[in-house]
Amino acid sequence: MNSEYHIPVLLKESVDGLAVRPGGVYADVTFGGGGHSREILARLGGSGRLYGFDQDADAEARASLGDGFTFVRSNFRYLKNWMRYYGEEHIDGLLADLGVSSHHLDDASRGFSFRFDAPLDMRMNRRAGATAADVLNTYAEERLADVLYLYGELKNSRRLAAAIARARAARPLATTGDLMGAVEGLLPPQRAKKDAARLFQALRIEVNHELDALAEMLAAACSLLAPGGRLCVITYHSLEDRMVKNMMRAGNVEGRVSRDFFGRSSAPLRQISSKVIVPSAEEQERNPRSRSAKLRIAEKLPDGGAAE
């Protein structure tokens, strides 16, 4: 069942944030198990169009949602190209649930979790690209340390990279167990699980070029949204959340605010709420993956800028 494959996070809150209009055009750029897409389609009520994006073959196998739905097996960074391909000049809303799905974390063969001894893959798209094993075994020690520091925010990144370099000199790292063995003793007991999760996060971001893809998708979404269209994004760590916050506040992921002659911001979006939306205590108990989730919602301004 789809509910077992992946439990959608902040389902009602995020789809409520889209303010779905009958007959509108929407994009769910992180299809996953299809939970958010099904809710959007239900609110479209048989009219309009929903495009679901996912680069994973497992998601594609679950993507038969009937009339009004088009599945696009692609990285969401190519959103604008695909909308042009399908003849859509504008969309009325876009939803993105970033991060790794519960299915990916529970599938030992994918290598996304340190809970299993599995091949070091971590690719969202298993058809192409370097694996986590490639990164660990071929990156120069200094480059590897930078990846762990920038994407995992690990303060001891240089010690971790040095330990990995020593281990791979003896034999290439092939499994998640090899990686955990290489860094054994360098993850303080009081935060071992948290730091291990950050280590895996850093590698996953590097393997899938996640932050570059996110920047491209957000820029495309901003230009594609029709006036009054909604952008709803669920984030799970500070790096991606900062980019989303900056895009909604300033119109770019760097957070540079441009102002017109009168001192008004020229950002094309208006945040619906200055506070992030987080899952209820009940949802966090039911779905542990949701505990770090933050939902941000913004609306495209009628004139594409000049916010007060």
How is this structure best described in words?
Strands 3-2-1-4-5-7-6 form a seven-stranded mixed sheet, sandwiched between helices. With about 300 residues, the protein is an alpha/beta fold. The chain has helices at about 1-5, 10-20, 35-45, 55-60, 80-85, 100-105, 130-140, 140-150, 155-170, 175-180, 190-210, 210-225, 240-250, 280-285; strands at about 25-30, 50-55, 70, 90-95, 225-235, 270, 295-300. Helix 8 (about 140-150) crosses helix 9, helix 8 packs across helix 11 (about 190-210) and helix 12 runs parallel beside helix 13 (about 240-250). Helices cover about 40% and strands about 15% of the residues. Strand 2, helix 4 (about 55-60) and strand 3 (about 70) form a beta-alpha-beta unit.
Keywords, please?
7-stranded mixed β-sheet, single chain, alpha/beta, about 300 residues, 7 strands
Number of helices: 14
First-to-last CA distance? 47 Å
Gyration radius, to the nearest Å?
20 Å
Low-confidence stretches: none
Mean pLDDT: 90
Side-by-side strand order of the widest sheet: 3-2-1-4-5-7-6
Secondary-structure content class: alpha/beta
The general outline is: globular
Range of helix content: 40-55%
Order of helices and strands: HHEHEHEHEHHHHHHHEHEHE
> What share of the residues does DSSP label as strand, in percent?
5-15%
Total strands: the figure is 7
Question: Mind describing the biggest β-sheet?
Answer: 7 strands, mixed
